[in-house]
Amino acid sequence: MSRVLLINFLRFISLIFLQVFLLKNITLYNLSTPYLYIMFILLLPFETPNILLFALSFLIGIIIDAFYDTPGLHAASCVLLAFVRILFISITVQKEGFDNEPEPTLSVMGTRWFFTYALILTLAHHFFLFNLEVFRLSEIPFTLSRFVLSSIFTVFLMLLTGFLFYRKRER
Amino acid sequence: MRNLLIFITKYNAFFLFIIFEISSLIIYIKFNSFQKASFINSTNKITGTLYAQVDELYSYLSLRETNDSLAKENARLRGQLKASFYIDSVNKKEVKDTIYKQQYTYVEAKVINNSTNRSNNYITINRGSLQGVGKGMGVICSSGIVGKVVFVGPHMSIVQSLLHKDSRFSAMLSKNKEIGYIEWSDDLDPHKGFLKDVSNNAQPHVGEEVVTSEFSLFPAGIPIGKVSNLRTKNGGFALNMEVKLAVDYGKLQYVNVVINKFAEEQAGLEAQQKKDE
Asked: Nearest-CA distance from A119 to chain B in Å?
């Protein structure tokens, strides 16, 4: 239990640092910006109570907001992300399987499931984020292209991180 | 009552979602206009110090370019020294200069947080109200204009850079002094701006310099960029043109905050006039 806490705490800190001091400076062709920090919410254990999940999402969102000078923007997107996560997991994972599959990581759940999971959640988060940031219908084509390209970048980084920390299943 | 509780616990995810989403949207709408500044931004203690420390590290990486730009500015300033002018009058001593009084003073500041890749970009600098920075002051750097101070803390301030959807500064063509206003281009290119609403008989040409006008919060004649394209999209009765910005906003290191001695007086007068109308 304490191990899970420690791992998640380290993940929280390191993802915020990575996002704020490295990824914040990266943009490809003025279109594609990665938001890797949402991986923290994606990788929380299955058994996290809903209220804790929402509270943590809100917290990481507001911390990122503090660094990005956009109060509430990332928090709102992260809370939406947490909701989509609950829906997705309740549809695709059986409750009984939680004992031997504690966390939705790439190594535990397999590439295919994790890819779908990461893709759908990232799309939801980025769509909400970019549209809320611009909040204008007149720039829809531009916003949409930013949204799609950024999602591709983020998912790519997520898969990369997943394979980097890949551990063979202990059976 | 019991049924209601059961209903709520059964769909607790949805209700929690609603609560958190609404609270974050309230924060977003309420605090994002910067008028009601909150503590959730990069001037508060934790984020500010973190940014300052990491910036120390970054500044080592760009020492060469900083040196170059400082050397260039030194050379330019040396050109304005009294010593570099030829004196042709003999009785020059003890002349009290009553015509030229200083209107603008400058506070130098270091950029500790910067972004160019979002649709609304802000810069955090390490000077605040204790050093005389106030809201609404202009910010320039050695190669051109940077933006406008929008939020002041005691030790740091936030500058809304030109690369912001709401940034709009009065500008003019340097040759024939035709007035327009400068805006960031709509495709988020940090090197491109638009000069808009220039009158139709201006006859600009590609490569002409665009500078600040007398009506902006900067001293007149601060460079903004060069005209790069004369297409007149959405022109109507006025000329619009594309401007290649002189400042590379991604590499900002040191900036100057412009303190206009007459700003308060001017603002007061103009407010009075508005009230009278």
From this structure: 21
